Please model this.
Amino acid sequence: PTEAEVKLLRQYERERKPLDDLSDEDRFMMHFSKVERLAQRMTIMTFMGNFDENVQMLTPQLNAVIAASASVKSSQKLKRMLEIILALGNYMNSSKRGSVYGFKLQSLDLLSDTRSTDRKITLLHYIAMIVKEKYPDLANFWNELHFVEKAAAVSLENVLLDIKELGRGMDLVRRECSLHDH
Model:
C-alpha cells in the first residue's frame, strides 16, 4: 500500500470501525501495511526474484569481454603490430619528443587521419603496406583475435550499470539482514 493508503487504513483503525466492513482486499492491505519495513522488504523480494535472470543476462556479455580480453592479451602477432606502430610513431616524432615506451589505444584512431604530404595515403595504409612487404607473417594478425566482435557489441557502460545495480541490491540485503541479526 502507498503512504496515503496506509494513512487511511490507520485512520479507519483509530475510528474503531469493524474490519469485517472492509473488502477482502482492504483487509489484506490492512494486515500487509503492518509489516515492519515493508518497502525495504518488497524491494529485496523483487531484487531476489529477479537476481537469477539479471545474472543470466549479464553472464554472456561478461564472458564475451573476458574471452576477447584474454585473446587480445595473448596475441603475439598483435603485440608485434603494436610494436611496429610504436616504432614508426617514435621515428616520425623523433625530432620533437624523443622515444616513448607506449601509447594510448585511442591514438590508433589517428592512423587513418594522418595523411602523407601528397594526401594520397594514410598512415594506416602505409603501415599495412610495410607489414605486407616486410612482415608477411603479421598480415593476418586478426586471426588470433577471437570473440572481439562479440565483445565489441557489448555496452560496457550498461554492463557496469547493471553490476552496480546488483551491488546496491546486495548491499540492501546485507543491511536488512544485519538489522535482524541484532
